[in-house]
Amino acid sequence: MYRARDRVDNEEWLTQLERAADSLDLGSESRSNATDLFLTHVPDEDRSKPATAAASLYAGALIAGEERSQTAVADAMDVTRLSIQKRWKNILEDAGFRPPSW
Fold first, then answer.
1. pTM metric for this prediction
2. Helices (H) and strands (E) in the chain, counts
């Protein structure tokens, strides 16, 4: 779980998440899921935050049933697809979900 202060400390990344969600035309459930996942998994290193935010957005959309491609999410978040590919399953598993097997 995260603290309310985490939302303030990571406002820049949450704003970027919202912009990307807008460009991907994601609904409120996907956005809420992505925000919760990101704030629960915020890395200590700033250089890892964009990739974690992107993976959280991808995973949040999956949970909400609004699947987008890793490439589309990566483009919207300005990270590589590999950044998402390396992180999204762990984020889902840590949140108590079982990643799809496709």
1. 0.93
2. 6, 0
